[in-house]
Amino acid sequence: MDKNELFNKLVSFTSSVHRVTNELTKNTKSNSISQVQYNILEFIAVSQPVTPSEINDCLSMSMSNTSRELSKLSEKKLIKKVNDSKDRRKQYIHLSKDGEVIMKEAFATIETRFLNRIQHASKEDLEEIERAIDTLQEKLFHP
Amino acid sequence: MDKNELFNKLVSFTSSVHRVTNELTKNTKSNSISQVQYNILEFIAVSQPVTPSEINDCLSMSMSNTSRELSKLSEKKLIKKVNDSKDRRKQYIHLSKDGEVIMKEAFATIETRFLNRIQHASKEDLEEIERAIDTLQEKLFHP
DNA sequence: CAATTTAGTTATCAAATGATAATTAAGAGG
DNA sequence: CCTCTTAATTATCATTTGATAACTAAATTG
């Protein structure tokens, strides 16, 4: 087992994942929000609840900009801020009802494109794909 | 086989891939270039050769900005532009020697972090990971 | 050949973003 | 209690970026 070769495979694999993710999520955002705001909502939707610190860390943005954009999303009633009951410096950000609606629509578009992409896959292929995802999730990406 | 469930797995999987990619590539860029310039060099390194159009498409940036940043990278002697011999409107961007050096260093850092991440995986685990990557690359991400 | 489209460059301006610093509030450690 | 650190907000300013338009050059279409 050549770990070096495995690393090269990982590089080209992650590059493919990013490319396909781009294709699937292109132009899915509603017109009422900016691209960055959509990225934030998507991150919240997948990782709910999140703190502002996690957002600027995971989306590689500055704390000042995160704070600004969260305020705008709050004004638009797309997110809710909840204080941590133990550590009262922390906030947990959730999607609001309206935020959930926007993200449900976006994910519906993404899912349609995904189903289109795997429409010719056989039952066996799909099962193999599912097992492969489980394997990588468990052994490589989750910890 | 529930395709809906498979989609949900894909969403959480791609989210993990992005998170781990972030961890592995954080602060790997040399101080002489901006983050965007690093992203461009990384994309070129993985997909060489690429056209300016592919760069603005895959990195979701405007054509004007792509052109500006490529000029800067050219001034810094990190890339080379080669005209397509058939379609002379097109350019192919390659890394220069200096660009290769910068990216080799960056990937060395990333590889060290990756090896650290899989240090406790058994031989069997690594083989399973490799097969899973091959499967997803072939059946889900490559086409 | 003429008209249209495509690839890319450049200049300009407005908007988004990052860096910084000052500030508030609260947890952690001595 | 005092100091240090962490989480977050806000204001200010410089830089980066996107949008637009004008432009060159070359391919495509008809």
From TrEMBL, chains A, B:
Asked if the record carries the keyword DNA-binding, the reply is: yes
Keywords (A to Z) from UniProt: DNA-binding, Transcription, Transcription regulation
Domain of life from the UniProt record: Bacteria
Annotated GO MF terms: DNA binding; DNA-binding transcription factor activity
Q: Which Gene3D superfamilies match?
A: Winged helix-like DNA-binding domain superfamily/Winged helix DNA-binding domain
Q: Which residues belong to any copy of the HTH marR-type domain?
A: 3-138
Leader peptide range in chain numbering: none
Which Pfam families does the UniProt entry name for this protein? MarR_2 (PF12802)
Q: What is this protein called?
A: MarR family transcriptional regulator
